[in-house]
């Protein structure tokens, strides 16, 4: 009996507040836009009984989805988001790996301190950290001021409101998510493996490439998923740093919903985004499962 | 003996500089007397004063704190239960769905979660306000809590619970008297994590809030969309300051406790039989 | 006037038909999926026994113990404690307590609070709890450490806390799961005698699980040698050692020579043809009858095998061989003697003389011999 309560309470919560909302999103994506409150039709009138349900199913259509395919904006946004997510993940990996690696090379008494220094930004407000870059990348931001003052350029560079700013923002905010799993994987690495490799003739670079890199793969995979998946649907960074030139699907969804009041389209955008993400999410969960089993 | 090559030293210094300079710059600018944030005009703390006189910000801050406390407490309870289910409940009907639902929100883009929750609230006719934000935050926070607590539970020595039962505890008592005190640090970190996530959330709060329940992140966002603002700099500095004090204190305390534990154990073994 | 030495009454309730057992296993079977951990076990354990479950990993001894504690339930069969079926009774309601292999001391409680833990669950009045805890602390010599936490005391002290805690509620039955495994050899020997002392003093029935046969032989009143879910032999340590009922038991306990051969039984002895060109081994047997030419195993302990340069005349069991190897262990030497037919027989003697002055060395031709009653004839 106790076990039943233990399982059913969180289960019921998640069903009600996680799964069912998704079902609703799907349902609304199949509805039509109307000027009404709520701004979609048909609404599922359960009071109408079986007839009501039948009427509902007659009213739904894939019109919204067809609309998405007709307007260039949407598939361009998906593609752009994919491109940005992939590139940003790669850059974050390139920046994060050396940092994580460096952390494992310092003397053991320093490591908790470095770990704390990595975690601190993670606990600081995401919004504020993105905002910080606005003051640095703007026309009269710090970078432009510095470069002008040094005489390297005579006209301020436009960095803010371009994809470049978005890349910088993503790498900056998601860096701890990449560093921590990689650090954790590298930390578990047994020193004697590296010594054995050197003993058998490897140079320091070959040791890294043949031993360290493959063994840190789990950390790399976990970190990459932790960056890629949320970045795909990221809203705040493209909104504050990307301007109108940067097309990302998260922003599109937001605008469809809040600016255009077009709920069915917003829902349809969400459904397709979810479909794109299902495979990475399942892969991520499988990887976590494997990790857990390997350790446990 | 690990050697710190110049490559590693450089990547570490550049890396941490990259992580911290923007925040340091923000802090410096918050003391800029000029309204044009990026043009330095002398040291001043007037923006902090402006901030504390701004009613709208203070109200939003109050809403945000209330929501954070309620949602993180609720999330900790639910998340701990979920962690228990994941680690201890073994096989049961619908287990795959359950673990899928627990892990998915960790990586799900917030726009999707936010949209879906709003549609739910409208569908059941729930007015948007503090309650809906709390419900929304609890839902995604509990997943983070369950990850933290379940990783502690996995390494928990079950023979301690068996010993408790052997000595006369019912399963509930053994949880209350033995398990909970021992996993308390993990539960506490779960709570803190949920608190921070709630405090900081913009996207989901935007979907789930109503006209009278604006949260601080929402206020900040609407202010900065138009550009940098000195009051926001002041606010940011305060928030960074609080987090820094918290994280550093926690770090020092954990380190001290670990050192003391080790010293005690060594002394005990040396004193021996 | 001749004084008759006072004799300690022999403790053997299992031989007394008037004694009722404390614990009874009746045809107990325990399965984990397809794996049979306990296979149709029936055994009686009596009060005040120090009963040892001995066997290799996976033999089922820990499963038996956990079934007594209540953490596993039998798939089939019954377990009775004091005549009562305990299947439905959860672990917290049984008058059974367990000392865990890892000690399982509550790290967030002091030594005092650990010991008092079980007593508090009984809702005893405070003075009674205090008195009992102090008694336990005295019994295990831990009074000085009462306020310390588990990580502030040494491994041996933690073991004593675990013991004190498990005895605090004065259970009818105490289960000890490999209690001495984590201690070093010297400490282990001291603690073994302490355990026996405490068991006698408190009059509690102890059931100990161990894979260390020396430990089992030292502490136990009876030893159950287990293999793959079955109790192969249950007897006093002396009988297990001197009269094993199978090659498995003979081999498991101590060192032994197992010689395979063909039996030829007469009214008072058994002749074993074991090697071409060698006379038969002459042995005695009590209850077992061997068919003519039946396969037979002759088990004899190395310390019962004498080694000499000349052929001994006092026993028919004398065979010549060459010394293959000598293992010098300080107090004893084991001689590995190779027989012409290929077998190696181990003979063990105490080193009464110093190394350089002994009679035998490698490659020497020697005679190994033993009496007709020194070994045991086994069917399998």
3D structure, described in words:
The complex is a heterotrimer of chains A (296), B (273) and C (380). A two-stranded antiparallel sheet of chain A has the order 1-2. Chain A has 296 residues and is mostly helical. Helices cover 77% and strands 1% of the residues of chain A. Chain A has helices at 2-29, 49-59, 63-70, 72-105, 111-123, 126-137, 142-150, 163-187, 191-199, 204-215, 217-232, 236-242, 249-259, 263-295; strands at 32-33, 40-41. Chain B has a domain at 68-223: MetI-like (MetI-like fold, Orthogonal Bundle). In chain B, 79% of the residues lie in helices and 0% in strands. Chain B is built from eleven helices and no strands. In chain B, helix 3 packs antiparallel against helix 8 (171-200). Chain B is globular, with a radius of gyration of 23 Å. Chain B starts with 5 loop residues before the first helix and ends with a helix. Chain C is of the alpha+beta class and 380 residues long. Chain C contains eight helices and 20 strands. Chain C has two domains: 20-247, P-loop containing nucleotide triphosphate hydrolases (Rossmann fold, 3-Layer(aba) Sandwich), CATH 3.40.50.300; 255-306 and 316-378, Nucleic acid-binding proteins (OB fold (Dihydrolipoamide Acetyltransferase, E2P)), CATH 2.40.50. The termini of chain C are far apart. The model of chain C has no long low-confidence stretch (mean pLDDT 88). Classes of the chains: A mainly alpha (296), B mainly alpha (273), C alpha+beta (380). At the A-B interface, helix 1, helix 4, helix 5, helix 6 and helix 11 of A face helix 1, helix 3, helix 4, helix 5 and helix 6 of B.
């Amino acid at each position: 009996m106790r076990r039943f309560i233990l399982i059913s309470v969180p289960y019921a919560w998640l069903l009600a507040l996680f799964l069912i909302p998704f079902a609703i999103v799907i349902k609304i994506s199949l509805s039509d836009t109307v000027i009404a409150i709520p701004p979609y039709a048909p609404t599922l009138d359960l009071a109408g009984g079986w007839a009501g349900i039948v009427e509902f199913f007659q009213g739904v259509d894939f019109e919204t989805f067809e609309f998405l395919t007709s307007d260039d904006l949407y598939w361009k946004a998906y593609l752009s988001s994919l491109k940005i997510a992939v590139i940003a993940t790669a850059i974050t990996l390139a920046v994060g790996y050396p940092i994580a690696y460096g952390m494992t090379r310092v003397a053991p008494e320093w490591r908790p301190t470095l770990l704390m220094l990595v975690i601190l930004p993670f606990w600081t407000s995401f919004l504020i950290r993105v905002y910080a870059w606005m003051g640095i990348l703007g026309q009269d931001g710090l970078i432009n001021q510095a470069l002008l003052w040094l005489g390297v350029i005579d006209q301020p560079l436009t960095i803010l409101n371009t994809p470049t700013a978005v890349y910088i923002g993503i790498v900056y905010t998601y860096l701890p998510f990449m560093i921590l799993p990689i650090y954790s994987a590298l930390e578990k690495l047994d020193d004697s493996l590296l010594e054995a490799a050197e003993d058998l003739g490897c140079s320091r670079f070959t040791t890294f490439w043949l031993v360290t890199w493959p063994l840190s793969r789990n950390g790399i995979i976990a970190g990459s998923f932790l960056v890629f998946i949320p970045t795909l649907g990221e809203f705040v960074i493209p909104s504050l740093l990307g301007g109108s030139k940067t097309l990302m699907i998260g922003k599109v969804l937001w605008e469809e919903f809040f600016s255009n009041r077009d709920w069915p389209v917003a829902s349809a955008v969400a459904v397709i985004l979810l479909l794109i993400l299902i495979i990475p999410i399942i892969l991520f969960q499988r990887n976590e499962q494997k990790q857990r089993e390997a350790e446990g | 003996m690990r050697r710190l090559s110049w490559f590693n030293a450089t990547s570490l210094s550049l890396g941490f500089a990259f992580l911290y300079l923007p925040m340091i710059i923000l802090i410096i600018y918050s003391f800029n007397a000029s309204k044009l944030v990026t043009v330095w005009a002398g040291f001043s703390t007037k923006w902090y004063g402006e901030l504390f006189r701004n009613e709208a910000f203070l109200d939003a801050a109050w809403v945000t704190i209330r929501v954070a406390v309620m949602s993180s407490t609720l999330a900790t309870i639910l998340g701990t239960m979920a962690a228990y289910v994941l680690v201890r409940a073994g096989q049961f009907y619908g287990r795959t769905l359950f673990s899928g639902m627990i892990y998915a929100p960790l990586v799900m883009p917030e726009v999707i979660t936010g949209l879906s929750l709003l549609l739910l609230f409208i569908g059941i006719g729930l007015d948007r306000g503090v309650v809906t934000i709390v419900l929304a935050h609890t839902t995604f926070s509990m997943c983070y809590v369950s990850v933290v607590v379940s990783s502690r539970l996995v390494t928990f020595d079950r023979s301690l619970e068996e010993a408790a039962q052997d000595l006369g505890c019912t399963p509930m008592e053994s949880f209350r008297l033995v398990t909970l005190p021992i996993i308390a640090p993990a539960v506490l970190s779960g709570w803190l994590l949920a608190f921070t996530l709630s405090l900081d959330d913009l996207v989901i709060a935007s979907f789930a809030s109503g006209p009278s329940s604006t949260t601080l992140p929402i206020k900040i966002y609407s202010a900065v969309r138009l550009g940098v603002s000195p009051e926001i700099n002041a606010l940011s500095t305060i928030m960074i300051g609080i987090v820094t004090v918290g994280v550093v204190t926690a770090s020092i305390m954990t380190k001290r406790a670990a050192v003391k534990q080790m010293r005690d154990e060594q002394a005990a073994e040396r004193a021996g039989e | 006037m001749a004084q008759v030495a006072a004799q300690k009454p022999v403790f053997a309730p299992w031989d007394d038909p008037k004694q009722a057992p404390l614990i009874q296993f009746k045809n107990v079977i325990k399965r984990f999926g397809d794996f049979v951990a306990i296979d149709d076990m029936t055994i009686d354990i009596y009060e005040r026994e120090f009963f040892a479950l001995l066997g290799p990993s996976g033999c089922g001894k820990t499963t038996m113990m956990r079934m007594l504690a209540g953490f596993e339930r039998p798939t089939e069969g019954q377990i009775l404690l004091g005549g009562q079926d305990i299947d439905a009774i959860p672990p917290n309601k049984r008058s059974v307590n367990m000392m865990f292999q890892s000690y399982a001391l509550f790290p967030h409680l002091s030594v005092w609070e650990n010991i008092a833990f079980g007593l508090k669950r009984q809702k005893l009045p405070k003075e009674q709890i205090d008195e009992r805890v102090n008694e336990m602390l005295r019994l295990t010599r831990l009074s000085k450490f009462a306020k310390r936490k588990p990580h502030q005391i040494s491994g041996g002290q933690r073991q004593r806390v675990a013991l004190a805690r498990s005895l605090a509620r004065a259970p009818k039955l105490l289960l000890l799961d490999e209690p001495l495994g984590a201690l070093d050899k010297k400490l282990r020997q001291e603690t073994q005698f302490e355990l026996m002392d405490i068991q006698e003093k408190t009059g509690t029935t102890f059931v100990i699980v161990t894979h260390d046969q020396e430990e089992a032989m030292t502490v136990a009143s009876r030893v159950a040698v287990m293999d793959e879910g079955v109790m192969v032999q249950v007897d006093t340590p002396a009988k297990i050692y001197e009269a094993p009922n199978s090659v498995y038991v003979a081999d498991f306990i101590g060192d032994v020579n197992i010689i395979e051969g063909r039996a030829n039984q007469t009214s008072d002895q058994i002749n074993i043809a074991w090697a071409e060109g060698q006379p038969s081994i002459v042995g005695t047997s009590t209850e077992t009858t061997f068919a003519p030419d039946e396969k037979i195993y002759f088990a004899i302990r190395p310390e019962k095998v004498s080694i000499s340069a000349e052929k001994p005349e006092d026993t028919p069991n004398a065979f010549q061989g060459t010394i293959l190897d000598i293992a010098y262990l300080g107090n004893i030497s084991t001689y590995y003697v190779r027989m012409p037919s290929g077998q190696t027989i181990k003979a063990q003697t105490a080193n009464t003389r110093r190394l350089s002055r002994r009679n035998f060395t490698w490659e020497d031709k020697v005679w190994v011999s033993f009496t007709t009653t020194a070994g045991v004839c086994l069917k399998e």
